[in-house]
Amino acid sequence: MQLDPHRHLIYLIVFPVLGMGLLLGVVLLAFALPPLHTHYTNQVDNDLRLASRLSIAVCDNGFNYLLDLRLEEDAEIRQAVKEETLAEIRAISRNFDHIHLMVVEGNRQIVADSIAGGHPNPRFPEFRRLPRDISRQNFGSGDLRVHLRYFPFWDWDVVSYITEEDYLAPIRLARRIVTIIVVGSLTLLIITLLIAFRRFIGRPIRKLMTATEGVAEGHYQPLPSGRQDEIGRLVNAFNSMQARLERKDADLRDLFSALETSEKRFRSLFENALLGIGLVDRQGRFKEGNGALLTLVGCSRARLEQVCLTDLCSRGTDSEVIQEKLTTRNALVAFDVEWRRVDGSCYDARLTLSHLEIDGEPLTQVLAEDRTKERALEARLQRAEKMEALGTLAGGVAHDLNNILSAIVGYPDMLLMDLSADSPMIGSLAAIKQSGERAAAIVQDLLTLARRGVVVNEVVNLNIIVEEYLKTPVFQKLCRFHPHIRVETHLASDLLNVKGSALHLAKTVMNLVSNASEAIQGTGTVVISTENRYVDQPLRGYDRVATGEYATMTVTDTGEGISPEDLEHIFEPFFTKKVMGRSGTGLGMAVVWGTVKDHKGYIDVSSTQGKGTVFTLYLPATREALAKRVDFDLKQYKGKGEHILVVDDVPEQRDLADQMLSRLDYQVTTVPSGEAAVAFVEKEAVDLVILDMIMDPGIDGLETFTRLSKRRPGIKVVIASGYSQTERVQAALDRGAGAYLKKPYSLEKLATTVRRELIR
Questions:
Q1: Is it the case that residue 118 has pLDDT exceeding 60?
Q2: What is the distance between the alpha carbons of residues 553 and 609, in angstroms, rounded to a whole number?
Q3: pTM listed for this prediction
């Protein structure tokens, strides 16, 4: 933008004011003072001449008076006229400012002086009568400006004079006034310049400074513009610069905001990553690490920079491998190492190394993962696969074996009802029945440890189960076999009930007490205790105990304890330190684990070698009350001629069910398959169907139940199986089947189940 030269500040302010001041000073100093001085001098000189002329005129008048009277010879009259003339001369001086008159006789005697007090020198000093009428002389009292007139008749010199001080006083005053005017003008000029500078330069500069400080703080406020001088151009340039800065600042803020968001996002991903992430240099020194890595290393962030990656490997071979990977800088590599924390504890870890370059520095990214849980999961998976295989085996065995055992358990039951109390066959039949029940219990153990056992959902109390176990022949036999072991109980009187199977829980107590006794060499103590516990935070021990209310049972022994290596395997099937076939089968603790898990409970184990072992079982508590026990009376459960259809693919099982139900006064029909059952129901009505779940060949129990329900809506069905309560069994129960009857079943179990379903 081109500036108008007539709008510059130097033209607007400085030149006019400065020129005016200089002009005023030159005029006053060069033109005003000299004329003033000359004019005043002329005026003074004229006054001196006039005073002298008037004085001479007075003298002429006096002398002429004497001449007219012809008394000039009369000394007395002449003296009187002289005195009168001198008085008039004195009076003349009063008509002039600062002009004085003095009369000097020929003998230089001052005869008159208008100055009050007279002249200090009574004799007038010698002086020259200069050709000029005005002269500067000194009569002994200072410089005087003098005009002399001689009056010869009386030999008088009439002197009109003015002192130097009176003569110069107006000149000095004029000079003083001019000086004041010049100084005042210069002062006014300076003040004007200051005001103008402050208004037209200082104030805009301050505004520019304030606006500049605001820009430095991030506040952008344009300045008002409109001036065409340098300040206006500067303001316009500043506003333009400020606008560009504001746009750039806005772009930078957006960029920084995006960068900050990105940094926060990736920092959050970095810090919250489950994997340990770190950066190391070529020597393996850590440069940075996230929280997961700090946990894995076991140190603070400040100390991490002092840790070397190779120092965290407990095996020398691992350190060599890592050093080689850091040096060769190959592509992405992953390998397992034995990791050692700063505190010295070790665990298995997997490291993944990838090489990168940051700001020209070669670095290596380290991904560290604790494989402890993964190894545990692998172990659990292997155990689950082992249990699945065992469950498949147990299921296949249970289905066929339970059908066989049904006859061994069921027929002695009916025969015992027909024999008299003194029959010699009672003992043999009872032994056959007990053997069948023991064989069925072994099959049930296989199903339990494989997590395929049947859990009866009834309210039980652990105190009652413990007390009843202590009364059993099995416990008495254990006490005889270990006479130096004392079994103590500390049972909580207010123990809450649990829901489950009393039979399975009793076997759990038996296995725990038996193992505790076997662990004691010589004398010792086994303590069985129960109590209520409320877990408000998950407990991490051998098993992770979730929050909730539990009834717990603890079995403590003072035996040799369990080594850490064996503690990891004690619940595995067929793992035992006992002599197989003599003191154990290796299934006891596996059955305990399966039973607790079937009851949705948890197990905690702690053991110290040489001091003993503590097993604690956490079973979910219930507020439901115990059911009252009723003694079995066969007469109360006999039928009234109801028609019952038995569906089973095993002939022996059909015959046994037929005889038992007939003994209970029911009308019985048996068929070998599901298809036959559906066809029979379409022709005849039945009151109840006892339906086998697994039948081969043909449709199974669930499909049979579905078809029966379509033909006869609301038909009553009892599901019977020697295998387990599978998902298909549960599906049948969910769709309306009344009860589940496990094979081999006794006459009592069959009678109570059928009667309960018929009256439902």
A1: no
A2: 22
A3: 0.46
